[in-house]
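Backbone shapes recur. Consider a single case.
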Amino acid sequence: MIFEFAVSPSLCTDYRDLQLFLQSFGNGEGRLLSDIPRKRWMRLARQQIKASDNGQVMKKRLVVAVEKLSRKALHRRNYAPAVGEKSWLDHAVAAHVDRPFKAILTDCYNGNEECIISCDKDFIDDKRWTVPLDSEVERNEAEMIQAIRPMLDCAREVILIDRNFAPDKYRWRRFLIKLVEFLSGRTFSPSIGRVDFHLGDYVSPNHLQVLCSNHIAGDLSDGIKVNFFIWPRDELHDRYILTDVGGVRFGIGLDIWDGSGPEKVEISRIAEETRLRWWALCKNKTIAFSIP
């Protein structure tokens, strides 16, 4: 639903390509543009534009467009392997080995790497370019996390929203514990020191803190604390996982199947406006308590 792509800076010399990228990339569109090589993608794009055979007026338009694309969608990895002064494609393939892209988009590629798409008139129909809006998965922690793993692999902040969260119930605490375990064990991804959970006030904050301490704290992975924020229950309805790179809605909730209810959950990407609205609301709440 939200994926990272590597795009060759050489493709920024064609205004039609850039317009397509501006329409196709961004948190709400489900595509992040990787800053590969680290902190150098924009400089390489400008160099390609400067060296192109476009006229000066078009070069200025291309620079403006690529800067807009950067502000909208450029994702800066915290780590990428050093491969010396090799080509951009070599850098992208090396980074793909550590943390896979959805695809690597370049021009005129005739090799055998499965992850690489040649940017021609038919590439938008390639399944590696396609980003699904939603998916339906089994309600178990492994499949639920795997469905959003490309988003989680890029995330530096994670916010969970489920008004029904009950730490004394296995189906809710199992998903939270396994999600924290996944985040703490990521390799070549940003480090995360906290997860924020927003839930409804079905019990008092003091009692909820006791339940979390008794049923969850001892099973959380080291290095990540969970902050809990309590809302009037009627103010929360939709169940979300929000990150700094995008957000998704979990149709039935952030709990696994326990033998009753639907066996599958629909997960869908939310609009960027929705993510930003809920992000701001969550950031304005005061922490009720933290564990461990």
Notes: The chain has two domains: 3-125, 134-291.
